[in-house]
What does this fold into?
Amino acid sequence: MRILAIETSCDETAMALVNATGGLSSPKFKIEENVVSSQIAIHRPFGGVVPNLAKREHIKNLPIVLSEIFGDTRENIIAKDFKKVDMISVTVGPGLEPALWTGIEFAKELHKEAKKKNKKLLLRGVNHMEGHLYSFLLQQKTVTQKSKPKIKNMFPSVALVVSGGHTILLLLESLTKWKKLGETRDDAVGEAFDKVARMLDLPYPGGPEVEKLAKDGNSAAIDFPKPMIHAKNYDFSFSGLKTAVLYYLKKNKNLGNNGFADIAASFQKSAIDVLVKKTIKAAGEFGAKSVILCGGVAGNQALREVLGDECKKEKLEFFVPPFEYNTDNASMIAAAAYINFLRKKTYSVKARAGLGM
Ligand code: KG4
Ligand code: ZN
It folds into this structure.
């Protein structure tokens, strides 16, 4: 099945053309095209994403990205290329509502026009967080073992979903059946990275900047709190950690570059320790065979390494998407659309900012 996927939930106008084959026990994805048009430069002066600016940029970028994917004009794409597309899939939530609507309206319009030429063309809504969850399927090998493991042998599995808006721990019984073990009670971990970045005068988006700065710092320099690390449940909290960084900065003036690097490294260590400890604990308690790490924060090399090492020690297979598919992209939306098609799960094609997992 050939899927055109569209993703506009935040500040990336993303589109992908993916050929999906296989059943639920061995889905395969061949990414033919994957375009991400980033708006970072537009939002950077504001220190974060401005929803109405994102909307304006998506409206401008969507037709350009569509032409880039097929290398032709819209007219020709609809007349010719869509004959060989089976489904248009589009993110319906969670995300910024004005941004979501741009992708949805674009998808609906395309579907309406292209359906005149291709009567079987499907239109499907996709949950953005399911996209992140299934992004590991875009590379079906683990970090901890060399051979390609069989997906059907990886369950039960614990998934740590870490993005700018979410921090969720899931227990997966299968690729399509899971329950939420816990989630953040306040800030998402990516949000904490972004806020700490702002305190350290680093540009938006802050996560990768904090990670870069942390490489020059000493992670044992400052003893920041590790909220809820010993709690009996699997919830998280990152607001206190962020505030601890703020207080530290207020108390210690004139720190200089080394001082800032120590803060970045120590903050990052606290955040990673909590995430890894709770993930590994859940894997042990529920007899998991594997761990999945996904979402934008999965791009953090230190987190990948620490969690990967712990998985190795515990003999857990460790699945993590390739670097380019951690942060928002449309290939992961195509993957989720295909899995939901196989399991006959549908989402209505309208924007829902607070859509859950
Ligand atoms: O998944 P994503 O692209 O968008 C959302 O769905 O939220 O995640 C973006 C988040 C941002 O908070 C960003 O700062 C964070 O992921 N992030 C990182 C890194 N790369 C992206 N956080 C820490 N280290 C990174 N290398
Ligand atoms: Zn995302």
